[in-house]
Design brief:
The chain is extended, with a radius of gyration of 19 Å. Strands 1-2-5 form a 3-stranded antiparallel sheet. A two-stranded antiparallel ribbon has the order 3-4. The protein has about 100 residues and is α+β, with helices and mostly antiparallel strands. The protein contains 3 helices and 5 strands, in the order H-H-E-E-E-E-E-H. Helices cover about 45% and strands about 25% of the residues.
Length: about 100
Protein backbone atom coordinates (compact mmCIF):
# COMPACT_ATOMS: atom_id res chain seq x y z
CA UNK A 1 0.00 0.00 0.00
CA UNK A 2 3.04 2.28 -0.21
CA UNK A 3 2.35 5.21 -2.48
CA UNK A 4 -1.42 4.79 -2.43
CA UNK A 5 -3.94 7.26 -1.04
CA UNK A 6 -6.52 6.49 1.64
CA UNK A 7 -9.89 7.95 0.65
CA UNK A 8 -13.11 8.63 2.54
CA UNK A 9 -14.56 5.51 0.94
CA UNK A 10 -11.57 3.47 2.20
CA UNK A 11 -12.12 4.80 5.73
CA UNK A 12 -15.84 4.02 5.58
CA UNK A 13 -15.14 0.51 4.30
CA UNK A 14 -12.60 -0.10 7.09
CA UNK A 15 -15.13 1.02 9.70
CA UNK A 16 -17.76 -1.23 8.10
CA UNK A 17 -15.45 -4.27 8.27
CA UNK A 18 -14.37 -3.54 11.85
CA UNK A 19 -17.66 -2.43 13.43
CA UNK A 20 -20.25 -4.08 11.24
CA UNK A 21 -22.56 -1.11 10.71
CA UNK A 22 -24.09 -0.67 7.27
CA UNK A 23 -21.88 0.85 4.61
CA UNK A 24 -24.14 3.89 4.45
CA UNK A 25 -23.99 4.41 8.22
CA UNK A 26 -20.20 4.10 8.13
CA UNK A 27 -19.94 6.60 5.28
CA UNK A 28 -22.13 9.04 7.23
CA UNK A 29 -20.01 8.50 10.35
CA UNK A 30 -16.80 9.31 8.47
CA UNK A 31 -18.41 12.37 6.84
CA UNK A 32 -19.72 13.65 10.17
CA UNK A 33 -16.34 13.19 11.84
CA UNK A 34 -14.61 15.13 9.09
CA UNK A 35 -17.31 17.85 9.19
CA UNK A 36 -16.95 18.31 12.95
CA UNK A 37 -13.17 18.49 12.60
CA UNK A 38 -13.48 21.09 9.84
CA UNK A 39 -15.95 23.18 11.85
CA UNK A 40 -13.64 23.21 14.87
CA UNK A 41 -10.70 24.32 12.71
CA UNK A 42 -12.84 27.04 11.10
CA UNK A 43 -13.50 28.39 14.60
CA UNK A 44 -9.74 28.44 15.23
CA UNK A 45 -9.89 25.57 17.72
CA UNK A 46 -7.27 22.89 18.08
CA UNK A 47 -8.34 19.32 17.24
CA UNK A 48 -6.45 16.77 19.33
CA UNK A 49 -6.82 13.07 18.55
CA UNK A 50 -5.12 11.17 21.34
CA UNK A 51 -2.46 8.79 20.04
CA UNK A 52 -2.70 10.34 16.56
CA UNK A 53 -1.83 14.02 16.66
CA UNK A 54 -3.00 17.61 16.76
CA UNK A 55 -4.49 19.72 13.96
CA UNK A 56 -4.29 23.45 14.54
CA UNK A 57 -4.77 26.69 12.63
CA UNK A 58 -1.74 28.96 12.47
CA UNK A 59 -1.66 32.57 11.33
CA UNK A 60 1.07 33.41 8.84
CA UNK A 61 2.06 37.04 8.59
CA UNK A 62 2.42 39.02 5.38
CA UNK A 63 5.84 38.74 3.78
CA UNK A 64 7.72 39.32 0.59
CA UNK A 65 8.23 36.40 -1.73
CA UNK A 66 9.06 36.11 -5.39
CA UNK A 67 7.35 34.94 -8.52
CA UNK A 68 9.17 31.69 -9.37
CA UNK A 69 8.55 32.15 -13.10
CA UNK A 70 9.86 35.72 -13.42
CA UNK A 71 11.92 36.11 -10.25
CA UNK A 72 10.12 39.40 -9.52
CA UNK A 73 9.33 40.24 -5.87
CA UNK A 74 5.72 39.62 -4.89
CA UNK A 75 3.78 40.43 -1.72
CA UNK A 76 2.27 37.42 0.04
CA UNK A 77 -0.86 38.30 1.98
CA UNK A 78 -1.38 37.17 5.58
CA UNK A 79 -3.32 33.93 5.82
CA UNK A 80 -4.31 31.08 8.05
CA UNK A 81 -2.97 27.59 7.43
CA UNK A 82 -3.67 24.20 8.96
CA UNK A 83 -0.79 22.44 10.63
CA UNK A 84 -0.54 18.87 11.87
CA UNK A 85 1.79 17.63 14.58
CA UNK A 86 1.95 13.86 14.98
CA UNK A 87 1.86 12.41 18.50
CA UNK A 88 4.83 10.52 19.91
CA UNK A 89 2.78 7.30 19.64
CA UNK A 90 2.18 7.91 15.92
CA UNK A 91 5.83 8.78 15.29
CA UNK A 92 6.96 5.59 17.02
CA UNK A 93 4.51 3.45 14.99
CA UNK A 94 5.68 5.01 11.73
CA UNK A 95 9.34 4.47 12.65
CA UNK A 96 8.67 0.80 13.47
CA UNK A 97 6.70 0.27 10.25
CA UNK A 98 9.39 1.89 8.09
CA UNK A 99 12.25 -0.01 9.70
CA UNK A 100 10.82 -3.42 8.73
Amino acid sequence: MIGSTVTRADLAEAVHEEVGLTRQDCAELVERTLELTTQALERGEQVKLSGFGVFQVRAKRARMGRNPKTGEPAAIEPRRVIGFRASQVMKARIDRALSK
